[in-house]
Design a protein that fits this description.
alpha+beta, single chain, globular, 725 residues, six-stranded antiparallel sheet, seven-stranded parallel sheet
Length: 725
């Protein structure tokens, strides 16, 4: 159990309607999105009553390939945690009813929410409440395959068999899919993909998942009906589309325009689709994106795998020059005009090793160095063109390896290791705070969302410096960073757009630079793994007040019932009256307030002992104000649990001697010879064996019976005879 955590919970008032409640919500334009990716089964178990909901699945909280209990209700309960970082978009892995797969990518019934995840009402409620805090929801759409209920007994199966040859298919378990795809004739019969290029990747099975005949009009029409149902009956703002390149392009040219027309009819403003085109370069991706060649409407954008590949070597391993990733963004602007600002950037997700795991390929000087690499990757992602996509747990330094190790439980579950141990909804975590700052900058400053990308200086021979600007509406932001583990000199630059300006480093506002009329930006030394974001001082958005530490912390167990005070630390000096009025402790316990001289630490001085083995919650609402007149960023609550009462021992019968806890490992099986040779208990002494058990070690010369007696319950003691000789 990791103890030093803090959880934020949002109390939302809403009325759940039977019709889509979020139809009037205006989603951000794609360029303005900042997306948090949630793996549904592993994020938060908010409703334990549905843990065994799928009759074909296995609920096993410690099983790598089983359901763990994460659900839609769990996401709803943590909306404040997500919104607190500043995200305005959320991508949720598939929720449709699966055959037996926890990950959601093996559909069984296309028109049901998987019972392990909730139901349609829970989905609607989640979207309604997410929209209420400014978060647009994007479903993970699967359109080309189902689960694994089909195989063949033919020789050679499952090796790929090119068309027109086919295998004879069969239902492999007596179970078949419900309508509309309830016949073997609706599925390709060519075996598994062996070559991930050309038509084989469109007609073969991916990972043994039954491949639909998306090249037929029946499947195209029925798949449109499936996703029209979810578009119509929820307030979804768009879709992340799975395995795009494994479906024939004719399907997309038929399907995507119909879906967009339906979204327009429903008034779904800024409807957005972005696809997974694994490994695709710009030339390949352009076949699926937009109207670059006058083809019918296709995807708005695609996850940028070229950005991902570059980020692994530039940031995670820190072995490649930063020109690799700045060059990637320059190429994207050239090759995908009109779409490059919409292309989501990511550096890890549910299909690949986590960033902090890849960073171990180059261990460097240790964890602190690898953490700084992640900080730089986050900074670059939020400053670069294209919506940043952050995989859940990145802000808590999760470091899982390949699937399924990169799908750790975010809550205090049973599939966790290293930094993912315990409850991880920690709003005081350094990276959570960094993401919050970066998101506030991107939200407030249009150049970071819509500006051009101009590389001013960059190292090309290995780890080193990069300097680039983003300019929009007459305003320019300069980002500089050093990926090297040694200091580097940033050369002087002339940046006309910054002429006659006063700049502040958004990551450390006390650092300022005045740029003369010539636009001359002086040479400067960049510390190892440092980053700076130079913004016009007048445009620098203030940081809202936040809680940076609390003791006891959320999730802490065994808290002493004689605790004398609770402390809450803030990021800045607080207004005492409003903060005290916003603070509560439950169950109700008398306390008084005390503060440090700087008003950055509030103490709840307790006036009574706490109750044993009880959950206590300290809540500070967002009505608390700082002395700078900014409200607390969000309502924050920390829940912790008290331990047992201290053990009070009955008096020892004289003349016996009690020894200390050095004897905790001693056990007795009834014979003198059973005592460990290294035992510290001498004859005629008591020894502590367990929490409340004391044993009497009989003298060897008198060992005629059992070698130990439990005090004070054994009859030799209750009868008043403490002399066992």
């Amino acid at each position: 159990m990791r103890l030093l955590t803090m959880s934020a919970r949002l109390i939302l008032l809403c009325v759940l309607c039977a019709t889509p409640a979020a139809a009037q919500f205006t989603a951000p334009e794609p360029e303005d999105l900042m997306i948090y990716q949630v793996f549904l089964d592993r994020f938060n178990n908010g409703d334990v009553t549905n843990d065994n909901g799928n009759p074909r699945g296995t609920f096993n909280p410690s099983g790598a390939f089983d359901f763990h209990g994460g659900d839609l209700e769990g996401i709803r309960q943590q909306l404040t945690y997500i919104a607190g970082m500043g995200f305005n978009g959320m991508w949720i892995t598939p929720f449709v009813e699966n055959v037996r797969d926890y990950h959601g990518y093996g559909a069984f019934n296309w028109f049901n929410v998987d019972p392990n995840f909730g139901d349609l009402a829970k989905l609607q409620q989640l979207i309604t409440e997410a929209n209420a805090v400014g978060i647009a929801i994007y479903f993970d759409m699967v359109a080309g395959h189902q689960g694994n209920l089909i195989d063949s007994l033919d020789g050679g199966f499952p090796s790929y068999l090119a068309p027109p040859s086919e295998y004879n298919l069969r239902w492999n378990s007596g179970l078949m899919y419900p309508a509309p795809f309830n016949s073997l004739t609706f599925f390709h019969a060519h075996g598994q993909i062996g070559n991930f290029f050309g038509s084989e990747q469109e007609f073969g099975e991916l990972s043994s998942l039954d491949d639909l005949k998306t090249d037929t009009q029946f499947v195209r029409d029925e798949m449109f009906n499936v996703w029209k149902f979810w578009l119509t009956n929820t307030g979804v703002s768009g879709f992340r589309i799975d395995t795009v390149k494994h479906i024939d392009i004719g399907f997309w040219e038929d399907f995507l325009p119909r879906m967009r027309a339906e979204a327009v009819t429903l008034g779904r403003t800024n409807y957005f689709t972005f696809g997974e085109i694994f490994g695709g370069d710009d030339s390949f991706m352009s076949n699926y994106i937009g109207t670059l060649t006058g083809a019918p409407d296709k995807l708005d954008a695609a996850l940028d795998f070229q950005f991902y590949f570059a980020s692994q070597d530039v940031f995670a391993r820190a072995t490649a020059p930063p020109s690799n990733i700045t060059g990637r963004l320059q190429a994207r602007a050239t090759n995908l005009p009109g779409h490059h600002l919409k292309m989501p950037n990511f550096f890890d997700n549910h299909d690949v090793r986590r960033f902090m795991n890849v960073a171990q390929d180059n261990a460097g000087s240790g964890l602190a160095e690898r953490r700084r690499r992640l900080e730089q990757a986050l900074i670059f992602s939020f400053m670069a063109p294209g919506p940043p996509v952050i995989y859940y747990g990145t802000e808590q330094e999760f470091d899982g390896g390949n699937d399924p190790s990169n799908r750790e439980d975010m809550w205090d579950g049973q599939f966790e290791f290293g930094p993912s141990l315990g409850d991880n909804f920690d709003t005081t975590a350094p990276l959570y705070q960094l993401v919050t700052r970066l998101a506030s900058l991107r939200s407030a400053l249009s150049p970071l969302r819509r500006g051009d990308f101009n590389v001013r200086s960059v190292d090309t021979g290995g780890p080193g410096h990069a300097a680039f600007t983003r300019t929009d509406a007459g305003k320019t932001i300069l980002t500089v960073l050093n990926t090297s583990t040694s200091n580097r000199t940033l050369p002087s630059m002339t940046i006309a757009e910054l002429a006659s300006t006063s700049l502040a480093n958004a990551l450390n506002p006390v650092q300022t630079i005045v740029v003369p009329a010539s636009g001359f930006f002086p040479s400067r030394t960049l510390a190892a793994q440092a980053a700076e974001i130079w913004v016009l001082q007048a445009d620098l958005p203030p940081l809202p007040a936040s809680i940076v530490a609390q003791n006891p912390a959320n999730g802490e167990i065994g808290v002493d019932i004689n605790l004398t005070e609770i402390t809450v630390d803030f990021s800045e000096a607080m207004d005492r009256p409003s903060t005290e009025a916003a603070t509560s402790l439950g169950p109700v316990t008398p306390f008084t307030f005390a503060w440090n001289a700087g008003s950055t630490q509030m103490r709840l001085v307790l006036g009574a002992s706490l109750t044993v083995e009880t959950d206590y919650t300290v809540t500070v609402t967002d009505s608390a104000m700082s002395q700078g007149a900014t409200a607390l960023q969000f309502t924050t609550a920390a829940t912790w649990t008290t331990g047992q009462a201290p053990l009070v021992l009955p008096p020892f019968p004289a003349p016996l001697t009690a020894i200390g806890p050095t004897a905790l490992s001693i056990s007795v099986n009834g014979n003198e010879s059973d005592w460990p040779s290294a035992a510290t208990v001498a004859a005629d002494q008591f020894a502590v064996v367990g929490d409340q058990t004391f044993v009497w070690h009989d003298a060897p010369s008198d060992d005629t019976g059992a070698g130990a007696y439990t005090y004070p319950t054994d009859s030799v003691f209750t009868g008043g005879d403490a002399d066992l000789d």
